[in-house]
């Protein structure tokens, strides 16, 4: 190969590289979120999931003549199916954009609440001066923001009261965030934050599943499972073997995931607590079949679906007497009273 040919090839490569770099820079300027590799991969995952739904539904309406005819005769049937599709996708994006409940956010919320209580108490107390009594007023927002940095011991004291007496603060201080973690919290290396009631980091959603969005996640997999079953019934009529095989694999995974998280809800556990039980310091001394945070199946379901008014509701570890009560085998009468799995 002559030197001229080599120079031409190298020049073309440099030119194409420069063109691609300019194109990438222009895309990043228009869409700043694409410059982050993590967010870029998350967007690709979301796009792939939406495309899968579109492909399956598109093939149904293209190849199934009976479905098209049925849509004309019974429009409510197709409307219900399409409504479930839309609700599932909306629930997916709603869950992926929700906060799992971060420890730092809980600290700020605690600081603001404490600041507002202190401000209300101070404002009611008269202070003596030469001109008579005056009322002290404080900017609640500014005081709440400063409290976190000026007096973190309030949070530390409150959290450590949730652990057994004599527990070391260093044991439950995150080495990455430098914050004291309440029970059931864990640092997520993908999000680089400590998450309350950490369950797992979902790659498909691009976010952690924790206290703030576990209920939404459960509803999403329920809707996705129902949509997959309905789609599978329609695919059987069309006899589309390839799509039906792919959907069957996805359906088995969704059903197992739904059953697994339903079990976690009934027993008030997280995936991390179930899988890594022996690696969590405060769970090691608890018997295997005792669920320390469970309040009974009915109460667990109610708290999970209805009663949670705050994302930052923290749970205290049970004392020795409560653990002893939870370890007592339950009877049929206890099941009727919904003591099951407590």
Automatic annotation (TrEMBL):
Residue stretches spanning the membrane: 45-63, 75-94, 227-260
Domain Palmitoyltransferase DHHC: 171-239
EC annotation from Swiss-Prot or TrEMBL: 2.3.1.225
Membrane topology: Multi-pass membrane protein
GO-annotated molecular function: protein-cysteine S-palmitoyltransferase activity
Record-level GO BP terms: protein targeting to membrane
One Gene Ontology CC term in the entry: endoplasmic reticulum
Key words of the record: Acyltransferase, Lipoprotein, Membrane, Palmitate, Transferase, Transmembrane, Transmembrane helix
Broad enzyme group: transferase
The protein's name in its UniProt record: S-acyltransferase
The species this protein was found in: Lactuca sativa
